[in-house]
Amino acid sequence: MTGTTAATSDYEGLGEFHDLFMVERWRALRPVFEATFGDLGPEATLLDLGAGTGLGTRTLAACTRARIVAVEPSRTMRAVLTARIADDDDLAERVSVVAGAAPEILQDVAGPLAGFVCAHMLGHLTVAQRAGTFAALRPLLLLGAAGVATVDPGGAGSSELMTEERRIGSQRYVVRYLPSDADNRYASEYEVHDETGRAVRAERFEGSWTSVTAAALAAELDQDGWSVEPGDQSTVVLRAPGGIA
Question: Whose CA, among 3, 96, 163, 179, lies 20 to 30 Å from 44?
Answer without folding.
Answer: 3
